Amino acid sequence: MSNKNLDMNKDEFISVGKNLIEWAANYLENIESLDVLPKIKPGEIKNNLPQSPPFNSEKFDEIISDLDEKILPGITHWQHPNFMAYFASTASGPGILADLISSTFNSNGMIWKTSPALTELEQTVLIWFRKMLNFPESFKGIVYDTASVSSLHAIAAAREYVSLGIRENGMSSTNKLRLYCSEHAHSSIEKACLTLGLGLNGVKKIPINDKFEMITDELEKAIDEDKANGIIPMCVVATIGTTSTTSVDPVDEISKICQKQNIWLHVDAAYAGVTSMLPEMKKYFTGIENADSIVTNPHKWLFVPIDFSVLFIRKPETLKKAFSLVPEYLKTNEDSEVENFMDYGIQLGRRFRALKLWFVIRYFGVEGLQKRIREHIRIAQLFSNWVDESEEFERLAPVPFSTVCFRYKPKSINDENKLNELNEKLINKINETGRLFLSHTKLNGKFTIRLVISGIRQEERHAKEAWELIKNLASNL
Ligand SMILES: *Cc1c(COP(=O)(O)O)cnc(C)c1O
Fold it and tell me: How far is the CA of 37 from the centre of ligand 1 (A)?
């Protein structure tokens, strides 16, 4: 920064930086005065921006004023405590600051030599994280951007595990392969199969029980049927915390089937995985030690800014076998002693993401993180009780974590189509207020409203206000 003709000079960097830190702090402090959902029509933001880049340098003040006037109005505020849609994901102060330092280093961790601290901090912090989750030592962690990409790599390792020369000869050289998951598995599993050449027909969706959990007898039946037809069972994906209802597949039973048949078991716990930190939630993770891989996202419910997903894998050498390809210019003297992360996936370059998790774990401590997650679960259970006690609302799924599935069901209406219309109207009314953001799903044909508590700024009062707003709007329908 010494030569002001090349980059922004130090004094300007400090003064703009201080302003932006203040901007960020004020944004977070005043976030509740903003509507969580912007009242914006498609194209409105774009039409308000110049269609060509500035030829001459612009003042930073102008950039910041456009941030306020042109960008902020089009932001959906994920950091808002009334964001209770999807799986609400928030960034904490220490996580935000870590991103600043990560960009300051601008290290690229493709191999150990290109930034030893990046590699070794990532290794260390993932050992911390594994210990926090009480996962066995046999699991080695690796960071990817999202759960979709973590699962893609796990499934690629599963494909390598069946060892049919696919690495050399591609998919056309083998019999048809199959992956099994429940009807409620995340769409990213099917996308991984699209990418890896199994195709959508390479995925068999196993039926679920009335609690939206995979029926293991059906899984066994499907595997036997495929084997009888010459199809090779390649992978089973179990979910702890499905996307619609947060149901938990019986991982223990599934793992026994997988062990017996020697099939790779991948566990998708993108949202719920962090609850493995709480002794009272361990019951949902029984059998996890027998999984081959498991994904969980600190960027979802651990207050680490997006993106940050962790894949724990028991056979890292299989993943490496699937992806390692070292060109001459990336060979180094240390290769036999170190881990080069490029060997474990499709990407070469990698951000210094470990800083975010390191800052967050150290700042809050394991106990502080446990307390926050436990409180979210408590508030969601409270909300679930309010639904159960109400004569006008109905809960549509169990609530193992912090997600409540429910619908408005006035006593006078029994027609399912009418109820679907009514609930769709209700969620639209809720979201139109801008004060609360909820999302929906369909369960057994029923339009279902979902409410999630997992944000760092969420307190009991936000759930209470949400419940009052929902009841109020419902009674005025
Ligand atoms: C959120 C979620 C995903 C996808 O996560 P990304 O990080 O956005 O790819 C996959 N599976 C489950 C169960 C999820 O909750």
Answer: 22
